[in-house]
Write a structure and sequence with these properties.
Elements: H1 8-32, H2 48-62, H3 65-78, H4 111-124, H5 131-145, H6 165-171, H7 179-188, H8 193-200, E1 207-209, H9 214-218, H10 232-241, E2 251-253, H11 265-271, H12 278-285, H13 288-299, H14 301-316
Antiparallel strand pairs: 1-2
Bound molecules: protoporphyrin IX containing FE and 2-acetamido-2-deoxy-beta-D-glucopyranose (NAG).
Protoporphyrin IX containing FE binds next to α3, α8 and β1.
Length: about 325
Amino acid sequence: MDSPLGDANTTLILLALVFLSSIVADVSCSSDDPSLSAFFYDYTCPQLQDIVRSDVEKAFKREARIAASLLRLHFHDCFINGCDASVLLDDTKTFKGEKSALPNANSLRGFELIDAIKARVEIQCEGVVSCADILTLAARDSVALTGGPSWEVLLGRRDSLTANRTAANVLIPPPIADVPKLVSMFATMGLTEVDMVTLSGAHSIGQARCSTFRQRLFDDRGSGSPDPTMQKQFLGSLQEICPRQGNGNAVAPLDFVTPMRFDNNYYLNLQYGKGIFASDQVLFSGRGITENYVRYYSYDQDAFFQSFVRSMIKMGNITPLTGKRGQIRKNCRRPN
Ligand code: HEM
Ligand SMILES: *[C@@H]1O[C@H](CO)[C@@H](O)[C@H](O)[C@H]1NC(C)=O
């Protein structure tokens, strides 16, 4: 078996640790949320998964990027108060939610599609299915539609009554984060360094606004010059899309080689200095563990897909509201 980690002894010890920790993680998950289950809506809304899949598919045919946007929306939901659809709440005069937080404003996409799916689900199974579960399913379908793996989604999340903008400002990792910062921000969510490298592979699809990475192209960390770890041609093409004084809302693909295909090419890109954010590129220039996994995933796409599924399920299990907590919103944009 190919292993990302050095000699045989270290590998064995590490495998044993990974195995043990996965047992511990499974036990703690199932006792925390006894009601999260793949069969949650089997009797109350058996059509649910078909509705979500067909709507995501239709939207994807109109505009492929929607898949990436839904995947990211789920990530930003789960990192703030758990996967509870808090990110979907609109601001009002008296309520400031997560949509207008720094990492989200003018950036998150896909809200209209979630509304449309929710409306269709409400017609078929009124008052039963949470917005949080719809978003989780839509994220899974998005990965599958773009060529990635698929998996069974655990269901039974309920929707929050509130959101936390401050938390969105401080808990969503910024694109300039280094490895220790990324590791600690994922650890706050109960996710490991390996989960972090693995979930970063989501940057295999979608686009980024120039404003999120332009500093690297011209004045990296105030140095007056580009980030020296960027491959020269790659730097050139990004500078063309994002000139120094250009529009901050112009977009570049996260994976220049296969922009709308969910694959392991992201990890190959990093080895060539073609990561779009510093937070991507540092995975190959930082500490050993991330670098080893970047290599490993780049030559074993199956291993990447399997890990990605595990990490997505873990991220989808972050402190859900279950049982009688929270509510089933009628409209994903506001509490009932
Ligand atoms: C590791 C820390 C991460 C950082 C620093 C980060 C940062 C970013 C940034 C700055 C953007 C561009 C936003 C914009 O243009 O306004 C972006 C896009 C994206 N991110 Fe991440 N991200 C991270 C992890 C993740 C994770 C865990 C996922 C999902 C599992 C994800 C999925 C995506 C996707 C799919 C896009 C493209 C969205 C679209 O095209 O609409 N990211 N990310
Ligand atoms: C919102 O998030 C911040 C930062 O994580 C936290 O300090 C604060 O207690 C949260 N507010 C509420 C009402 O939960």
